[in-house]
């Protein structure tokens, strides 16, 4: 997978092998575990960083790896970002050291191949509604010692993380409920 890291006007293309995303999950979990206790983001202490804030923190580590020409660490940080932000196309890195100013561009793809539900037209078939609901609700993923899933909000165009859930089973149950709710609203022609 390719991630574009943008520093000022310069674009650096980072090539992250697909196999790395699965193999490095333990490393990614360790990063999440390190952030579970809170993190200093600029002048502000964030008690429990959400998914976007965690990615901003890791983006800062990516910048440090690039500045020190540590290619291996840079690929690992890029891998974390790609694993935790489905559809990530590029990251704009803030060179002033303001972690919260790191920003992300998520690629919008057609519903057939994407995790983002685009426009919904009334009268979807059950199969179409199921497919779109599946694209709008991520699988359960591990964050530190807990679990989460994300739901795409078509109104704001953002991914919303679930609260941190203690067990994978409970996260799966709540994810299924979110999927069912999205599926039923799609059948009714609601976004």
Task: Report on this structure.
- With 191 residues, the chain is α+β, with helices and mostly antiparallel strands.
- Helix content is 41%, strand content 22%.
- It contains 6 helices and 10 strands.
- The strands form 4 sheets. A 4-stranded mixed beta sheet has the order 2-1-5-6, with helices on one face.
- Residues 110-121 have low confidence and may be disordered.
Short description:
With 191 residues, the protein is of the alpha+beta class.
List keywords for this structure.
about 190 residues, alpha+beta, four-stranded mixed β-sheet, 6 helices
Give the rounded overall mean pLDDT: 83
Sheet with the most strands: spatial strand order: 2-1-5-6
Strand element count: 10
Secondary-structure element order, N to C: EEHHEEHHEEHEEEEH
Number of contiguous helices: 6
Largest sheet: 4 strands, mixed
Structure classification: alpha+beta
- Overall shape: it is globular
* Low-confidence blocks of residues: 110-121
Percent strand equals: 15-25%
Percent of residues in helices comes to 40-55%
Separation, N- and C-terminal Cα atoms: 30 Å
* Rounded radius of gyration (Å): 17 Å
